[in-house]
Amino acid sequence: QLQLVESGGGLVQPGGSLRLSCAASGFPLDYYEIGWFRQAPGKEREGVSCISRSGSNTNYADSVKGRFTISRDNAENTVYLQMNSLKPEDTAVYYCYLRKVASALPYWGQGTQVTVSS
Prior knowledge:
0% of the residues lie in helices and 51% in strands. The chain is mainly beta.
């Protein structure tokens, strides 16, 4: 059974930084892409960033380009989201997801809260 466990969320002031982690367990851990969505109160879940297993392909939402960086460590089966220059509008629950093949439904983590507020 594949499991995704996020960590690293919390409260941070505007302009601050956080690093989210998502540890994947279960087998086999070959996958097409892994990444992050977020959902703010009263809003739909939106894609934030994703990365291919090889690391050669990354994508970012326009709203986070230049501020967020995704990376992965296949040896540790972990994906990271480094979030810099955080804004109040980044406040949301951040969900890790993994897609085994391009056409497959994703697996989801339980989410981690990120709150950006002074």
